[in-house]
Every structure is written in structure tokens, then in C-alpha cells.
## 1
Amino acid sequence: MAHALDGLLDQVRLLWHVMGRAAESLHRDEPVTLGGRAVLEFLVRNGPAVVPDIARGRHVTRQHIQALVNALRELRLVSLDDNPAHRRSALVRLTPEGRKAIDRMTRRERRLLDGLALKARPDDLRRAAATLSAVREALGGRP
Amino acid sequence: MAHALDGLLDQVRLLWHVMGRAAESLHRDEPVTLGGRAVLEFLVRNGPAVVPDIARGRHVTRQHIQALVNALRELRLVSLDDNPAHRRSALVRLTPEGRKAIDRMTRRERRLLDGLALKARPDDLRRAAATLSAVREALGGRP
């Protein structure tokens, strides 16, 4: 069991790096970092959110998300609004430019993924995703 | 297909962050970073190697590996030897202290993994690993 899990975790690490390099090359003309892209995508999926919620959703620290949000704000891709529910956490919101940027990046990724010659069936992909989610839950991340 | 692949890639990103946080907490008393740990593990598996080989094996840049090797060398966990085969690339080699450090970290990880309450069978884990390897190959990383 532990050996099979080791092998899977190593594949996760290796694929993560390959995904990062593919995305950097795909988005090399965008000013947004991959971390910034993940924040924009979170806001598309979940709507306006405060930094602690984004951090929890992505399993990273608040400090990390705060730095990404600051950079996105300088690029005018997100705005920070007063938040009646949390006096100390401003609500992070996509600007129209931010929405355009993440839509453009997502379309480009979609074209890349659609063009892949992949030796795996959709069922394999879904099953692998479920297995990774179970491992994440066991390791202490929310499922 | 693309939707199933999207879902899998998102699970990879999420699990990668959870693995990183679990490892940071597990190894909080070690001076070695997670990147440094990956270099030490590469040297255990493959023996002494030059920086470009380690970078290729982990799908990251040479500059990134060089910085990790420099930090490990300051900690006296690796040594750099003259390399008759590559005049410009010194051979990176584990020191006895480096070997002890990676063995200690690996034992600690093994205890953590053995203790996980995992809702996935070894077969699921192996199949997921094979699927991730196929995705990596399609994305341009070596299988």
C-alpha cells in the first residue's frame, strides 16, 4: 500500500511541474503568474471572496494569497471592496479586465488540452481524480 | 474528455499543495526545503548526478536545481566532485550526513503514509499513477 501511494505521490509531483512549465509557455505573453491565474479562476467559480476563503479553497497560506491578490490588483484584474460581513477582510472581486484575462487564458488552455494525444480514457481520468481526492482527504485536506 | 482532464489537473494542483503543507509540518525541524528533499531523493535513487540531469529528471529548470544544490552544499548534505565526463558540470554526490538526512525524512514520511486512513485500494493508486504518467507524457514530459 505505502509503496503504491509513494509512486502516486511522485507522479503528482512530476506532473505538477510539467503542468507548470506547459502553462508558463502557453501564457508567456500574459502578465499573470500561475498563482494569480489560480486566484482569478477561484473568483470565476465562486464569485467575490475574502482572502482567507481563497486560501482555504486552494490549501495555501493567507500570506501567499494576499501577495497574489496585491499583484492582481496592481494589474487592475481584481478590485477590493468593503465587506459588510468581515470588517477586516475586503472582498476580492474580478474586474471586467480580470474576467477577460482569465477567459482568454482558459480558452488557450482548452485548445491545448483538446489537442492532446492522450492515452487515457475519460473514465480513467475521472477515476484518477476521485483517487487523488481520497488521498487528499486522508492527508488532511478537505475532499 | 477535456472536462474530465480539467477536473484531474485541478485535483493534481490541490493535492500538490496539501502534500507540501503535510511535508512542511512533518519536516519542520529539518533545515532542508522540500525542493532540497527532492534533490536528495533523486541522488538516493539515481546515484551521483550533474545538475542538468537532475533538472531533466524532475522537469524543472537547471537554475532552480543549481540553487537547491548550493543550499544543500552549505548544509554539507551534498558535495560537488570534479566530473571527468562533463568538464563544466560537477558531479553532485550525497555526503554521509545527506544520506542520514534523507533516510530520516523518508522514515518519517513512511510512518505518516502507513498511518493514513485511505479510502482507496492499492490497485486504484497504481491505476491513478499510470493515468497521471500518460497525461504527463501527452503534456510533453517524459513518461
Note: Chain B touches chain A through 50 residues (CB under 8 Å).
## 2
Amino acid sequence: MNIAILFGGSSFEHEISIVSAITMKKVLKKSTITYIFISPQREFFLVDTEKINSKLFSSGEYKKGKQLTLKQGGFFADGLFGSKQVEFDVVMNLIHGRDGEDGKISSMMTFFDIPFISPRTEASSLSYNKLYTKFLAESLGVKTVAYEHLTKNGERKVTMDYPVIIKPVRLGSSIGVSIVKEASELDYALDVAFEFDSDVIVEPFINGVKEFNQAGCYTDGWELSIVEEPQKEEFLDFEKKYMDFSRDSQVLSADISDELKEKIQGAFKTLYDPLFRGSIIRCDFFVVDNEVLLNEINPIPGSMANYLFPDFEGMVNRLAKHLPKEQKISIDYTYIHSIQSAKGKA
Amino acid sequence: MNIAILFGGSSFEHEISIVSAITMKKVLKKSTITYIFISPQREFFLVDTEKINSKLFSSGEYKKGKQLTLKQGGFFADGLFGSKQVEFDVVMNLIHGRDGEDGKISSMMTFFDIPFISPRTEASSLSYNKLYTKFLAESLGVKTVAYEHLTKNGERKVTMDYPVIIKPVRLGSSIGVSIVKEASELDYALDVAFEFDSDVIVEPFINGVKEFNQAGCYTDGWELSIVEEPQKEEFLDFEKKYMDFSRDSQVLSADISDELKEKIQGAFKTLYDPLFRGSIIRCDFFVVDNEVLLNEINPIPGSMANYLFPDFEGMVNRLAKHLPKEQKISIDYTYIHSIQSAKGKA
């Protein structure tokens, strides 16, 4: 299978998307990979799979490659002898943060009728926004961490006990996130967060909370990853996260009871189906008093959470064959014809 | 001002979008209009403003016009002497239903950095889905009509009293909507609705309920329309709705108290700001026991609800000058540079 990896984008996570994309070369060994880079200026460039490395992007050398145009059915390179379509079977959206996670890429792939692995637009809009993720989970009966919602121009009032964690609702990474240990630190943390977003959520910061990650997708059946207990850090700063996105070796399953595992996997399935069909996502859960709480949905997890799956490449192939189809709408101009007849016009 | 009207699209409301678009020629008298048609196959065509009429589309004659390509900064026509940009100041998204209201157009306009009048992607995803509209309204403290949510594969249980109204959550028009007078009619109505969507909401059908429409936008201040009490029909069927989309003459304000008007306008402002900045929307409210309940948000109302505004064209011009700006993200490859240094690679 020929997989076109779409990466880069106009995102704070542009650079970690490059790291994720390069990592895929080590992971998708049996597949042909076609690399399509989205520059910071949002132009499309074909990148030579043999030559890909991070310097190609930081040096701007990628600009020497073929520039591509998006048209019905695919990406095209314009040349002397007309327009030539870039060949691949499926796109994998590996753009973290803005553009990739907020629904732009999904919208374009759907509009131009290009098969793609990624959450669809609606799933993207909901999961990109931490506040709407809460609404979604609540509507599906999945519990979430308690929260308060503050707006840039609204009152800066927090009623929960400190310490709390402040998160801009729309950023995929840890940018703008602060842990606030006491009320006196609140204003500064909110100033920082509101630099990035008009909306912020405040959650209790639970020191030493048990955290578990579950990734997966639905192909011709459920394909769930192992449950991972991620390394404990207060939270990952940007550089640590960056290194984390280049992971390509299997990790061990968390040592948990079958009962807890079933609860986590049940919550994952409820959140995933049918909204996230066509994508590989990772859900991060907290466990408090034996109750499973959704912390976050990662709609485009770092290096697609490949290290959590026993057969990642096989799963990607199966998923590519089981992508959701858009409803066909046939347009026959019945109403325009009938109005023209009524008006006596031909 | 040169306004590019984007219309058509792969939508059940393709034909009424054509009607809306043609109506704009009568409404935007002082402006230059550039018409860009999206065919049922989702290709872009430039349409001659002088010659536009509905037959151009039903006959397929539009295909003789220039086909356009979307690239950074705008739409381009390829010709013998290279690629020529179509000139305009702002796009007005007039695509009703799928493509226009579900966030695809907004995503593309944002990605390609084209100024546009329309709800942005997040606002589109929420308002295109009647269930998510409920979440949004509830989170903002705006009351909505009571509802129950049914899924295609879930239990078909309705606990509210009949008659009820069944609505697929994702369709902009009345397609798939039924009024169910008693329990025995439920299954058939749900079969119809689930033909169109995996999710359905059930609401009480309130015979003779008072209904009021409020349209508006935020330019350099609030620009609210008159409050309209729409004509009473059980609900508009497709053909009636079709005619409704070609309205271009002012209607009268509803005869309501100042107190009720303030409540309706207050609810509108709460729903609109800041999520819907950059768009002209219409909110349809019910009034039950003097309480204002949101019925639906129309993110791309028929002919932009022009007939509700005293100075529609002036407002469009002001809105074009006050569109929300996407945050600039500068990418300097700091992390890639630092990792390259750490690895000792140039």
C-alpha cells in the first residue's frame, strides 16, 4: 500500500509533526510512503522519501521539491506537459495541532474526495476543543475531570480548591498550560493562557493521579492498543513531548486489573464510535477512586501511538480499507426545472 | 466592494443555494458581484454575473465557463499565459446544507487565507448538528426545546408525550423531518430519519407555538435585524422553502413587547459572540410561557435573511472589514535546530 503522509502545517506543533512523520518511515516498513509537506505558509510540497530528514525543513531546502495543487481526486504537480497526479492509496493526516486536528485537513480531503485516515471534520472540531470534548463525553455518559470554564472577557473566578491546572481550550500541546498552586498565581497563569485562546478551562490538579492511555480504531472490528501507564511528569514540557513523538518501540502494558482494563476500553469505544470512524486516536484517562475519567482525546497522537500496537502497520492497512464513506447526494435540478416550467420559461 | 458569492456545492440544498445566489444580485445593488459556482462534483467554475440564471446550472451550460483552482490567497484560472487570480475583496459563503454549513468551505477559506463571510469551522460543526447546538446553547445558559437523542443502532424509546417531531441531527433543511402524532407512527418516521443520519433528536411538537426569528452579526458593533414572526405552516416543505429563499423585500417587525424583544436579542447575542464572528446567522426561537427557547441556528440563512435588515448591503460591507483574524504562528525550527546540535549533526 502507498500511504501519503501529510505533515507540517501552520501549527505550534509543526516541528513535532515533522518528527512524527520521519518516525513513520521506521514504523511502516512494508509500505510505500509518499511524503507531502505543508509549509508554514500552507503550500504543498512533495518530499523525497529517500532523502527525508529534519534539516530539509529547517533549512528551507524542501522548497526545491515539486509544489502540489489540490484538485478533485488528489494532489497534482504542474509540469511542462500538463498536470500529473501524485499516486497513493490513502492519506494519513499526521499534522498535530492547528490545521490537522481542527478539521481543516479533514474538510479538504472530504471535499476533494481523497481517502484519508484522520478524524472527520465534526470529530475534529469537538476533540480539538477541550470544552466541547467535555460536552461530547457527558452526552455519551463518559465521566470527565471536573472543570470550570472562563472566558477572556468574563469574570476570573475559580471556585474549586487549589492546586488547579489552567488549559486554553483549543491548543493540542501543552502551550499555555499552567499549574496554579495558589490563588495569587491565578492571574498570571490566565494572562498566559488567554494569550493563546479566548476560552480556558480550569481543572483540579490531582498530584500523583493514576493516568492510563488507550489508543485504537475500528476497521472490520475493534483494534485496541495495550493500555499504557505513561511516565510520570508534572506534565510534559514541549521539548520532552517533542522527543516523545519520535517513539517507535513497543512499550509494556500497564499492570492493571481486567475490570479496570474493561472500564477503560469501554469508555474508549463509547467515545470513538461512530464519530471517530476512519481515525486512530488516543484517549487519556485518569482513574480516581476506581472511576475512569476522560482527561483528553488526542485525535492525531504523536507518531500515531504506533508503539502501543502489536501490529500497527497491518492495522493501518485494514483501516485504509474501512474508511467511512460520505453519503452520495444526487442533484437532478428537479426544483429548478419545475420553477422554470411554472414561470413558462424554457 | 467586489463580493465573490460561493454557491452550489454537494448538498441536498444545492438548488436553493442557486436561488439564494441569484437573489443576491437584486440585493447587493451597489457592489460588484463575482459568482463562483461549486458543481455537484465539487469543481469550481466562474459564472458570468451578467448572464446568471437558474437554467445555466440545470442545463450544465456553466461547464463552458472558466474552471478555477484553489491555491494560497485565492481562486485561479489557468490559461495559456499562466495562472490568473480571480479578483474580489471577500467571499460570501452562500452554500446551504452540506459543504457550506458543515465547515468544509470555512476550513478551505481559512487554510488558503481568503477573507470570507461565514461561520468559522468550529461554529459550523456545532450549528450544523442539532444535538451539538443543544450542548452549545446549554453551556451558554440559553434554554432550548426539550429533546431526546436516539441513535441508529440504539433503543427506539421515546418518553415524552405525543405529538413529537423527529429530526435527523445533521441536515440543514426539512429533509427527513416528520411530525409523529402517536406511538404507532414512530417506527416509520425513525426509519425515514435514519436514512439520512445516524443520530436523531425527538422534540415535543408544540402546535401553534409562537415562533420568532432573529438575524444579525457583529461588525464594529451589533447589527441586529428586526424580529420576524414567520408565516405559520406545520413546517415548510421543500418547495415552499425553495420559494422562501428568493425573498428580497423587507418584512414587518413582529408585534411584540420590548421586554420579549430584549430577551430574544439577548439570547441571540449570547449565542453569536464570539463563536460566530465573521458570519450573518439567523436564530429561530420559540416562546413558551413567556420563556425564550432556541429552536435552531441557521448558520447560512436563505438569501442571508437580507429581507430582515434595513441596510443589508451596508452591513455586508462593514462585516467584510471586521472579519476575525486567525492567530499568526511563526515557525522558526528552534527545536529541530537544538536537536540537530545535540546529535552533533549540522
Note: The two ends of chain A are 51 Å apart (CA to CA).
